[in-house]
Automatic annotation (TrEMBL):
Pathway(s): Amino-acid biosynthesis; L-phenylalanine biosynthesis; phenylpyruvate from prephenate: step 1/1; Metabolic intermediate biosynthesis; prephenate biosynthesis; prephenate from chorismate: step 1/1
Organism: Polynucleobacter antarcticus
Gene3D superfamilies to which the protein is assigned, alphabetical: 3.30.70.260, Chorismate mutase, Periplasmic binding protein-like II
Xref: InterPro entries: ACT-like_dom_sf, ACT_dom, Chor_mutase/pphenate_deHydtase, Chorismate_II_sf, CM_dom_sf, CM_II_prokaryot, G/b/e-P-prot_chorismate_mutase, Preph_deHydtase
Keyword check for Cytoplasm: yes
SMART domains, A to Z: CM_2 (SM00830)
GO molecular function, one term: prephenate dehydratase activity
SUPFAM superfamilies: ACT-like, Chorismate mutase II, Periplasmic binding protein-like II
GO terms under cellular component: cytoplasm
Domain Chorismate mutase: 6-96
Domain of life: Bacteria
Keyword hit for Lyase: yes
Listed name of the protein: Bifunctional chorismate mutase/prephenate dehydratase
Amino acid sequence: MNSKVGTEEQRLGPIRDQIDALDVQILALLTQRAQAAQEVGHIKGGFSSPVFRPERERQVVARLQDINQGPLLSDGIAAIWREVMSACRALEARQTIAYLGPIGTFSEQAAQTYFGHSILGLHCNSLDEVFKAVEKGAAQFGVVPVENSSEGAISRTLDLLLDSSMRISGEVVLPIHHHLLTKTGKIDGVTTVCAHAQALAQCQQWLSQHAPHLKRQAVSSNAEAARMAASDSSVAAIAGDPAQLAYELQQVATQVQDDPHNRTRFVVIGNYACQATGQDQTSLVLSVDNQPGAVYRLLEPLAKHGVSMNRFESRPARKGTWEYHFYIDVAGHAEDVKVAKALEELKTIAAFYKNLGSYPHSA
Ligand SMILES: O=C(O)C(=O)C[C@]1(C(=O)O)C=C[C@@H](O)C=C1
């Protein structure tokens, strides 16, 4: 019979039967995988060792992406196995992850993108609270924004990273698309636009051009702004898809961020020291004595040992003097031979040296 003959239903039927049969096989294999993860969990329990192993998860995904011959795309492989491992991990012990709440923040989206959905989210009111929750053990990990492609560093996160004993064990970069949202999708009667200060800054040109009459009010998060817009018709929120969905708002205008490629990088904080994966990054905080050429000398060991620098950020040292802390991300793991040599030399040059952690680098 010509395979092109028949109604849509008649032609879809056998293929759907095939998909159903394949799903049964996939489920049987996933069940075996979950049982293997449970066994791993029992062994780890015996050694009281951590459940979440970012470097192992990275290796699992990279290996599959390597042998994948399509038609599934690499991103699809990563997304599927992120959730598979998230569900398997939850059988060992569901991880509690702290981030800036309420429901619908980009921080929540970052946590779910990194850890998958089989987690317990601990919603915090501030970045300080996220750090405290992890320090006190109320959460195993926290997810905090560290820099935005339009607005630069999130200075509170940098200060907290400096002061806290937490180390960085991962990173995740999210595209940040903001919309102007109200309950009805209309702007009539709206007098105030609310959002996190960072989001207001990321949309300032658009707001000046298209809604100059609206009073701009900074609130604790975009999701909080969305929550306010849902209950007050004089308020519009600037927030993203997760918050729009969570608070059932309508778009007055779509993608109002000034930079269409707006992105935020989040870091995962915790107590875990990641092992090397071959694709890592190390984050450092350094300072130098206030002498001519001091910053130049600080960077010399990196050049000498062929270690590339992915980021260089300065932040006032908050001592009332014109001194700075430098936040430097270098390519590689602190235990990689050339990075280890460069860091040893850096330590002898820097007036202050802190290694925030080595972790798998997000491409
Ligand atoms: O290999 C492990 O250590 C596991 O616990 C298994 C597994 C997985 O599902 O593959 C789950 C959690 C870890 O974060 C890493 C991998």
